[in-house]
Amino acid sequence: MFSVISLMGVFADVGGLAEEEEVLLLEAAIFSRNVGIVCLAMVTGDVKSFGEVVEFPAFDAKLLKVEVVAVVASEVRPVVAAVWRRDWRLSHLKIFLCRVADVLSDYLGGLNEDLIKDNFVIVYQLLDEMIDNGFPLTTEPNILREMIAPPNLVSKVLSVVTGNSSNVSNTLPGATGSCVPWRTAATKHSNNEVYFDLVEEMDAIINSNGILVKCEIYGEVQVNSYLSGLPDLTLTFANPSILNDVRFHPCVRFRPWESHQMLSFVPPDGLFKLMSYRVKKLKNAPIYVKPQLTSDAGTCRITVLVGIKNDSGKTIDSITVQFQLPPCVASANLTSNHGTVNIFTDKTCSWSIGRIPKDRSPSMSGTLVLETGMERLHVFPTFQVGFKIMGVALSGLQIDKLDFKNLPKLPYKGFRALTRAGHYDVRS
């Protein structure tokens, strides 16, 4: 990912490291889908084992002091990194860095090198509000939006015209006077309503023999809340035992989940992520992709079949199959009986299928011409599959009931589910 030397250079540039201090790379892991989280400890003398790292749903800001936080742009993957004193708990720092990555992704609509460079001022302002003198301060996106306006086209035009690039508000957010730091003191809505979305991504690996090697779900419970006052909600699942690696929003009380596996919380106002989870060792995939490649005499014949494997009763939409042509392929001629096939200049082939018709199974076939001197194909491509299924959570997770407290009347509540492909790879 990143070498210790390069990260030391980043922190040295901002005055985070002294020459006599030794730096140890403790952890370099992917916590979110496309953001690297790196924790650097400033230690002197002998290095001892830190033991097992345990994540908590929330942290006490008094138990954590960060020396330097940096967001490093990279063509491969952005990295959110921090230098901390060895006296403090590593688990608290990891949770804080995950919060930083989530807030930046929420503000910028993603997190990559171009977005970080184009919105450098906002990234700097967010870091300045999220950490004060080394201690975490404000990490709730809804409160930060009241302090720092998200980037948009109008603000960018005004900053060019007026020369003022600051998006910081002149007034304190409404949550300043609230006993709940993620919710304003007196929230009022004419229509009380709350919506819950189960959004899941399926990660799967299927080997060249068509055997499912790995299949798991990464899911999120996303909530859009428009409730007046200070409501208290309790959400229970019909089968919470299937959940692994759960991670909660700070509003969730941890003891009810630990004892009864129910979510008790006072929700922030607006859209937020209540929790994330994994469901491991699934045994079925919704669709099959069967590639066949045979090569001889400088050419390779390719055939790819796609169909429904396990019918969930819901329509599978937005099906795509993408793969990288091997470097030894000089040219390719591919056609399909359904959908469109595009071959780009970087030798990426994309087959857009959409929905699978009822009268036939989509298939793609064609010929790959190898470079001069190559008789057979020795490197076989891996096929990345994309799909989307509305109205079903393939993990099997089901919401049992939702209870309300501190509300004069029952609000309207809605539930939806969506499953889409994550890293769904088929080897040939």
TrEMBL record:
<dbReference type="Pfam" id="PF00928">
    <property type="entry name" value="Adap_comp_sub"/>
</dbReference>
<keyword id="KW-0653">Protein transport</keyword>
<dbReference type="GO" id="GO:0012505">
    <property type="term" value="C:endomembrane system"/>
</dbReference>
<dbReference type="InterPro" id="IPR036168">
    <property type="entry name" value="AP2_Mu_C_sf"/>
</dbReference>
<dbReference type="GO" id="GO:0016192">
    <property type="term" value="P:vesicle-mediated transport"/>
</dbReference>
<feature type="domain" description="MHD">
    <location>
        <begin position="191"/>
        <end position="427"/>
    </location>
</feature>
<dbReference type="GO" id="GO:0030131">
    <property type="term" value="C:clathrin adaptor complex"/>
</dbReference>
<comment type="similarity">
    <text>Belongs to the adaptor complexes medium subunit family.</text>
</comment>
<dbReference type="InterPro" id="IPR050431">
    <property type="entry name" value="Adaptor_comp_med_subunit"/>
</dbReference>
<dbReference type="InterPro" id="IPR001392">
    <property type="entry name" value="Clathrin_mu"/>
</dbReference>
<keyword id="KW-0813">Transport</keyword>
<dbReference type="InterPro" id="IPR018240">
    <property type="entry name" value="Clathrin_mu_CS"/>
</dbReference>
<dbReference type="InterPro" id="IPR011012">
    <property type="entry name" value="Longin-like_dom_sf"/>
</dbReference>
<dbReference type="GO" id="GO:0006886">
    <property type="term" value="P:intracellular protein transport"/>
</dbReference>
<dbReference type="InterPro" id="IPR028565">
    <property type="entry name" value="MHD"/>
</dbReference>
<keyword id="KW-0472">Membrane</keyword>
<protein>
    <recommendedName>
        <fullName>MHD domain-containing protein</fullName>
    </recommendedName>
</protein>
